[in-house]
Amino acid sequence: MVPRAIDTLNEVSVIACEDTRHSKKLLDYFNINTPCVAYHDHTDKKSSGSLIRRLGGGENVALISDAGTPLISDPGYRLVAEARALGITVIPIPGASAVIAALSVAGLPTDTFKFIGFLPAKNSQRLSALQDLKMTTETIVCYEAPHRITDTLTDMVAVLGSERPAFMAREISKTFETYLHGSLAELLAQVEADSNQRRGEIVLAIRGCEDKADTVSVDAEKILRLLVKELPLAKAASVTAKITGGDKKQLYQLGLSMQDK
Fold this sequence. Notes:
The chain has about 260 residues and is α/β, with parallel strands linked by helices. The protein folds into three domains: about 5-85, Tetrapyrrole methylase, N-terminal domain (Cobalt-precorrin-4 Transmethylase, domain 1); about 100-210, Tetrapyrrole methylase, C-terminal domain (Methyltransferase, Cobalt-precorrin-4 Transmethylase, Domain 2); about 215-260. Helix content is about 45%, strand content about 15%. The chain has eleven helices and eight strands. It is globular. The termini are far apart.
């Protein structure tokens, strides 16, 4: 909690909270007595309309989330979008961000990274999403719920490989914060062995693919599968290579393996 945030929450007319009961603990700790209202992206338009009217009337409104930075996999974007559309000024109050905090100590490349929020909860959809990420060269960062962390790590091992370097941050800045690093298989083993690692708020960071030159991208494979149904294999591989920039010989070999199945 930065001093500017404390000053802002004391000075605004009202605080829009993801959960007023949860936020009350924070506000009481800092002796902030500003009135609060509940706001979530799924609340009815009456709630956002009330806040917009107050803003239009010259009042200042603060928006806070239960943890981390508002709008980063948290509610708020609908309210911000509506306010901006009406010419209302919206400014950030920099503070805690679980994504950046985790990346800063992950020991993985951070010159580029892909933040994907939460992976799908359903197993089949999660596997499909991971398959699409398999060839990503950037470090992958996501949030995960404690009751799904074992299943997610299991799926990551199956799709991304057991030896893919990874990092897990849990309960950042809180009493029981922990940091695990190693291969995906090692992280899975640690989580399975310690029930405490299946509690709290979790950030996962996974190193991107380092062997892109020796593999075919997911998009190229999809295109090739479509083209081989309409064209001779050599032509399909050639056209796919031109579209994706892939290696024609490699795509031809992949096409042969498709025909063998």
